[in-house]
Design a protein that fits this description.
By secondary structure, the protein is an alpha/beta fold. Helices cover 31% and strands 23% of the residues. The protein has a single domain, classed as Rossmann fold (3-Layer(aba) Sandwich). Helix 2 packs across helix 8 and helix 6 crosses helix 7. Bound molecules: adenosine-5'-diphosphate and magnesium ion.
């Protein structure tokens, strides 16, 4: 974690990060193998302290998130459960720097997200965080394979190594979407869309993946497969994965369970 220095910006290069990380190829290989290589690092990847969020709607204040403390580590696979409207997405988007809390501190990879400007936040997100959102948020006019170009283009601009097509194919194969790599979003099934979104999130080898109901559009067999896959990613690549879900059946797949109710977060496991 010595490269994670709060005071230095720009962020550590991928080359530096890679010295501590497995290659994408290694990660993809591990997706096929149940063996876990995860060890808990001492430094949390994310730390929230006294984080809360209010929304103003006319004269009414909505307390979407009550004061919340939360800590998670690399390699940890976490489920965030709770009824609709309880504040799960609010919490997840704050963790990912997609919106700022009303108060409190958000520390990701040693950086204080609440003190970063929007450009710095965007850079930090790109380096640290993979998002798998409910609406799959793939670019509609790009094929599955082309979805990954943006990441390589940014890496190139920064004179950082991208990945090869062979690396990509290996990832697609582990996700069972190699056949679909030249198809557009509109040509894919719900399950393939979810897997393409997962491929894109994994491609950048983030320290943390935030997934908002990634199994929502899947039948239970496919939902379990996705949960297993995320679990493998967490263990083989030492990624912290925080997954919002309605699905109580997925709890056996995760290391930790948190439940949200009326903006209050509680740890269950
Ligand atoms: N941008 C917003 N403006 C106003 N209210 C919001 C906004 N986002 C969320 N809320 C409210 O905050 C609460 C929590 O919402 P959300 O985090 O989306 O819950 P969940 O993801 O658990 O369904 C809800 O009452 C919701 O209506
Ligand atoms: Mg939500």
């Amino acid at each position: 974690m010595s490269t994670m220095n709060t005071s230095s910006f720009p962020l550590p290069s991928r080359l530096e990060l890679r010295q501590n990380e497995r290659s994408l190829k290694d990660c993809a290989q591990f997706l096929d193998s149940p063996e876990s290589v995860s060890t808990r690092n001492e430094e949390p990847i994310i730390k929230l302290r006294g984080v809360y969020k209010d929304f103003q709607q006319g004269k009414e204040t909505i307390h979407a998130l009550a004061s919340t403390d939360f800590t998670a580590y690399r390699g940890e696979f976490i489920a965030l459960l709770g009824p609709s409207g309880s504040g799960k997405s609010t919490l997840l988007t704050i963790m990912g720097g997609l919106q700022q809390p009303t108060g409190g501190s958000v520390n990701v990879g040693g950086r204080d997200f609440t003190s970063l400007g929007s450009r710095q936040l965007a850079a930090a997100r790109l380096n640290e965080i993979g998002f798998i959102l409910q609406s799959s948020n793939l670019v509609p006019f790009l094929t599955v394979n082309e979805q990954l170009d943006l990441y390589d283009r940014v890496a190139k601009l920064r004179h950082q190594p991208g990945h090869t097509q062979a690396d990509r194919d290996e990832l697609f194969t582990s996700l069972g979407i190699l056949d679909a790599k030249n198809q557009y979003g509109s040509e894919l099934s719900g399950g393939q869309l979810q897997r393409a979104a997962i491929a894109r999130a994994l491609y950048a080898q983030p320290s943390m993946i935030l997934a908002d109901e990634p199994t929502a559009s899947l039948d239970s067999k496919k939902a379990f497969a996705v949960a297993d896959l995320l679990r493998e990613q967490a263990k083989s690549c030492n990624t912290c994965i925080i997954m919002v879900t309605h699905d109580e059946r997925l709890v056996d797949h995760v290391d930790s369970i948190y439940r949200m109710e009326d903006g209050h977060l509680q740890r269950e496991k």
